[in-house]
């Protein structure tokens, strides 16, 4: 660990500057504490150091070796395994990593003292310069849509970076390799702590129940967090939203939208935005409309038609040529861990949908299935309502294989509908699913739950699943 006393002289509180770490009262540097040492926190610390803040990173857990080495190489003070309460509560501002909930005792103390708390994307926004931002949020489809927009921008020859909840932190990218355009996936947790963050293009895909454990089990609180993505937008900005989503439409009635609204829909005609009618996509953003058949979309399934619509509208706001958008939509490859075909073993297809960490994601996965399905699901339940997928389970699923440390809620929900088998790891789950399948069936791992009971994250879960399939 870097000796804090050697690297944090002048950590006494100063007034936080709005434009960076150097414009501070009394000649000292703005003291900034980064709480949390994952990708988001380390990225924030690297940017803060570059911008002249007096920064220290703290994490109650242990840091990954790679992150520890980065902080040491950058000369950034850090503390792992504990929190220095005196320094934390003397900070002018705190960057809170999105994984840390409000119920955390240190967060409560920070709030009680009135210290401003911001997210890493807020810090990155302050220092992005004149660069533009396309920001994407929603309960389902964020990663797919963000990746497709990035692909459209790259095919359209724009100099851009893919950041946020999808890989590199936004702050790290701004610090190490700034770009004229950032395509940014954003979660509700990141939106909770923005102040001035304003995307040039905001995309709101859908709002369904998720992460209710972080919002006092109040769906309204979660929906309000999603709507923060456009709260600072100006009339020159664009707001792309799903007009077929009842929750979004109801919230629009109670939110003042100043940005240029570009709805996407399959249920009506729109003067601007995008619509799909009779399997034909029309994108209208003021220029000549873009038209193409949904059969030419690389992404299949009704939910991906909404994702593709949103991505095409976002690309159109960047003045990317129609033929380039069309080419990108046709050439996009599916993402790892998102309805990812793994192998066909003795006539049984195995599909990895580990990124489905909530019930609605699993609903979308099942909706796109065309073969009799053995469904592997389970993990950390986040207040799931399994009745949402009951009809699809009855229609498409022949057996459910549970994979988790506590499978009781899933067993109770479906034991009278289909056979339910309980397992406690990926290898046993794959073997049980294969035993329940016959040639012509599909085994779909779409857990509807978080992964932290048995796995490091959803990527680890998906990788273990794929390895188990390959070992059959």
From TrEMBL:
Residue ranges of every copy of the Mur ligase central domain listed in the record: 136-314
Gene Ontology CC terms: cytoplasm
Sequence positions that bind ATP: 138-144
Pfam families documented for this protein: Mur_ligase_C, Mur_ligase_M, MurD-like_N
Molecular function GO terms recorded: ATP binding; UDP-N-acetylmuramoylalanine-D-glutamate ligase activity
Enzyme Commission numbers on file: 6.3.2.9
Biased segments, Polar residues type: 1-17
Domain named Mur ligase C-terminal: residues: 337-449
UniProt KW keywords: ATP-binding, Cell cycle, Cell division, Cell shape, Cell wall biogenesis/degradation, Cytoplasm, Ligase, Nucleotide-binding, Peptidoglycan synthesis
Family: Belongs to the MurCDEF family.
Protein name per Swiss-Prot or TrEMBL: UDP-N-acetylmuramoylalanine--D-glutamate ligase
Organism of this sequence: Cnuella takakiae
Gene: murD
